[in-house]
Write a sequence for this structure.
């Protein structure tokens, strides 16, 4: 789950990371009001769930409240990375001497939080990794989840900061790691963390992504979800406990089990087809759940046919087959169905499907071959 900068800044402030005074505004006149409250030159920034706003014209400095209003008017009309800008952040502007990158990510291979810094702040870290990898310095956080003071200091010295700045940097780095642990963030990033001409360190951008799988134990954070992050079908899937990821092809896929779903996508591609989605209906999915999954798949207008791949273990194949038949009668859209069914009571299951006029197989490759050729027709 992605947070907007203004939401991430609030988490930063709570964690004790220095951030300039700011507030979010939903109209140009509100932006003017915030600038008046701040009473200093401000920066007006598009609040969208993608980076690179600076380059897209979504970040503008304004000396006066009137200029802030004008900047907000321009920014609120933009579309950045496919997202129309509906709100702006108005923040006290900072003078910048240096821009630093500081980010904490979960390194799944190392099973640790990895803290990364680079002296090339303001530039995306992926780009630094490509063009100047030696500019990136790394420290792994111990499993305790606490950054050791010497690790923070080492990174500060690698950046060429002076003693006083290293002390401040170390506190910020420690707080960022603490925040990442406390929020179950997959990413917590300050880009740029700036050094002002007075030698102060401040976060002037804030990015936090929360691991969706941890939200059940972070109810306060779950409430921060932004509706623009998901399409309607994606939201419906999440709320129904269905794992759904839209892909680019035209073969809709419904599978019970994530591993089996992955295998199906591989076989479709191997046989020359293109899957329209990944979908795992879950273990003991009943007819109602299958129906919901079918509606989610069919909400995608590029789907030409639906391929169902079910392993009947605890749930018997004949029950699943009856569920599929029930779930597909009376739908808004009528697309061909191809089913692969294997497991307990598969013979009865195949019979139920064939009686309903649905192509059914026990072999995955057989079912995929039919789906691929019919989707290409
Ligand atoms: P992003 O492009 O979406 O990552 O947006 P950022 O918040 O990182 O802003 C992009 C760039 O705008 C920064 O790297 C800075 O160079 C500049 N910028 C942002 N805020 C200020 C500010 O308060 N003062 C000055 N002088 N420049 C700023
Ligand atoms: Mn940035």
């Amino acid at each position: 789950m992605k947070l907007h900068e203004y939401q991430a800044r609030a988490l930063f402030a709570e964690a004790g990371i220095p951030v300039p005074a700011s507030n979010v505004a939903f109209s140009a006149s509100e932006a003017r009001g915030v600038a008046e409250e701040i009473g200093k030159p401000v920066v007006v920034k598009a609040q969208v769930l993608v980076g690179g706003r600076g380059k897209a014209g979504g970040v503008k400095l304004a000396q006066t409240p009137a200029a802030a209003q004008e900047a907000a008017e321009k920014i609120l009309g933009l579309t950045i990375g496919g997202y129309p800008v509906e709100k702006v952040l108005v923040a006290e502007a900072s003078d910048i001497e240096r821009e630093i990158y500081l980010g904490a990510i979960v390194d799944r291979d190392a099973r640790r939080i990895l803290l990364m810094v680079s002296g090339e702040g303001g530039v995306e870290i992926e780009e630094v990794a490509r063009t100047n990898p030696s500019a990136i310095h790394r420290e792994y956080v111990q499993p305790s989840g606490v950054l050791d003071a010497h690790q923070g200091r080492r990174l500060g010295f690698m950046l060429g900061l002076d003693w006083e700045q290293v002390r401040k940097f170390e506190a910020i780095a420690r707080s960022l790691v603490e925040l990442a642990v406390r929020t179950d963030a997959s990413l917590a990033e300050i880009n740029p963390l700036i050094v002002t001409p007075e030698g102060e360190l401040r976060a002037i951008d804030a990015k936090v992504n929360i691991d969706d799988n941890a939200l059940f134990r972070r109810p306060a954070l779950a409430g921060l979800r932004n509706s623009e992050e998901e399409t309607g079908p994606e939201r419906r899937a999440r709320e129904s406990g269905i794992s759904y990821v839209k892909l680019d092809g035209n073969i809709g896929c419904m599978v019970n089990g994530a591993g089996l779903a992955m295998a199906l996508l591989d076989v479709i591609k191997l046989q020359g087809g293109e899957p329209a989605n990944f979908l795992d209906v879950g273990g003991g999915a009943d007819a109602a759940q299958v129906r919901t999954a079918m509606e989610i798949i069919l909400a995608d207008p590029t789907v030409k046919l639906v391929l169902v791949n079910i392993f009947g273990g605890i749930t018997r194949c004949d029950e699943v087959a009856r569920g599929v038949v029930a779930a597909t009668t009376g739908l808004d859209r009528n697309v061909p169905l191809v089913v692969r069914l294997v497991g307990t009571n598969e013979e009865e299951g195949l019979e139920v499907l064939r009686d309903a006029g649905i192509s059914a197989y026990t072999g995955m490759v057989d079912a995929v071959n039919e789906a691929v050729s019919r989707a290409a027709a």
Remarks:
- The chain has a mean pLDDT of 95.
